User: Fold these one by one.
Assistant:
Number 1:
Amino acid sequence: MPDFKIEDLYQGMVAGIDEAGRGPWVGPVVAAAVIVKNRQLSPILLKELNDSKKLTAHKREILYKELFCEQENGKVLIGIGEASSLEIDELNILQATFLAMSRAVAALPMRPDMALIDGNRTPKDFICPTKAIVKGDSLSVSIAAASIVAKVYRDKQMSDLAQQYPYYGFEKNAGYGTKQHIEGISRYGIIPQHRKSYKPIRDFLMNNTGAQK
């Protein structure tokens, strides 16, 4: 389970950063930055925080709400940033992810002294010093919290998009290439939020001129 051992290696305010939405074919990539002040959290968060992929949607929602309650209590600082599908197409997904991370840190009410970033790569010219932590969402409480915030926030966005475009199953697949999503594209074409640089979408456009909504 995640703990504060990595955070404790650094002085000052330490932010955990993670993203959601690198793999989907549609929608933004979202990053979250979370600072746990004084290493103090409610018991449910200390007990249940983990890599968002290891939690049920229901548990993620509970922890997401609890994290924002702790923000109101002054124990946690949360910043959220995103990069649009257009920016993903223009920059590539890695650089768009780094852009979303920069925006997430910029959205924090204070600049962290260190940013722990889930994965094995960090952005260049970042707003503060960074450290890549492989499988950080399973090791660091701050990164685990960021993984939940990013995932739930993006899932909510995709559910909203499903209200506008109900044929693709976005509320269930979050934009990944599921059978329902593929069938939706085949019948109704692509939407402006599709990532046109991704091979399945690019191939569809090449074979179906004028298929974009």
Number 2:
Amino acid sequence: MGEVVIVGGGPTGLWLAAELRLAGVEVTVLERRAERDPHSKGFTIHPRTMELWASRGVGESFVTQGRRVPDSHFGLLDHRMDYGTLDTPFPYVLLLAQPKVEELMEGYARDLGVHVRRGHAFTASTQETDRVVVRAEGPGGPSTMETAFLVGCDGAGSAVRSAAGIGFPGTGSTAYAWVADVTLDDPPAVPYFQKTNEAGQVLVVPIGPGLHRVAGVDGAGVLGYEGQPAEKELRAWLVAVAGTDFGLHDPVWVSGTGSASCLADRYRSGRVLLAGDAAHRLFPAGGMGLNVGVQDAWNLGWKLAATVRGWAPDGLLDSYHAERHPVGAATLRLTRGQTALMTTFTPETLALRSVLDDAIARVPEFSRFLAEQASGIGVSYGRGAGDHPLVGTRAPDLRLSGGPGLFALLVPGRYVFLDLTGTGRALPGRVTTSPEPPTPPGLVVCADEPVESRAGWRRVRAALIRPDGHVAWASEEDDDAALRSAAATALAATTRVRTPGS
């Protein structure tokens, strides 16, 4: 019997597969497409996604392939959120087409030993007490496999979600957005052109040699809602909104999507789990879907691996839904708010756009708040009573006197114990800096002093960082013995305590 089957070979499924394989789990990815889709549904990569790539040692291979833009839009308002104010090594968005993201992710996953079966479409599943029976249709005909867990990463129309009987409540479409990849003889002089008026909205971005992405909403009814608009209609749309067609010709891909938005009522049903668009359908607004999906995978990967390998403490896998479902709901709220700004062009909505535009331009704290929410930097999973305020928050790339930052320490995909006393005074007796892992899941131990001061971290003497870069425990305890005792308790909570015969 296999250990995990993932349905869907897009960014979410591939990153989840890599995370599982990093922990030694056997993974098979079923992807219905025989070849990678050459067209890019999304191309905006946010800082938190680049941080997770860096935390697995593959950040440079992605970042060097893309184009850096120091800001990003909110609802395609004229003034943009400044990402340069964020506390991250990646204070920008990266323009990188989804086919290239998938190519790099698949190469990384295959190098780790992930089995990717292209041309295999999921058809049905049956969940049993100790396994899931998965049926698929491939080049050789129908096949059946058994697996300990099944994960649906197969998009908003998820067949895995339907087979598991998981609800997908939400709202229907009230507007339609179009994207077209075209040649422009007279493109905008700026790399990120946007314009909104009573006729609709247009965004123009270069996406590759000789190609531009033209996207937006038709408020004047030029494009219609049924069938693919022709080149003539696309030019008319641009003229109506931007005042020029930029010399548009030869569209190579045109696609539309409605403004419907939905959220799965649960991310787990027994041995079946959901991630990415299978768990949440979002209106396209600055790459939110791709980024949130990959971040779902990062949260789920180490938890599912711990469960498969038998060292997960009680409730760890359930915490995937508990942590990521609220993030999905918050993202849905964020994109729905932007949908209203991007799809209605009444005088009232245009006035609201003007008010928010002024706020972004004149109130740096407001711009930063929106940037933190949109980028994933602001995601926090909460904490229990008595926990340090850092618990649940994303840990920054703390620079340490020994050289490497925190992200480099996270590369093996293990918990990281930081003794920030610099002298080893926070280390419990059973924990050393030996390369041999002292616990079943493994542990990276670093006894060092930070070389920079950060708000919230200035008095911290020790911290335990989860494999996904969020703080599991932190302490400012001054008494060394009490600090070591608290650290030992925190470490014990990461691993299932086995009783004789279990």
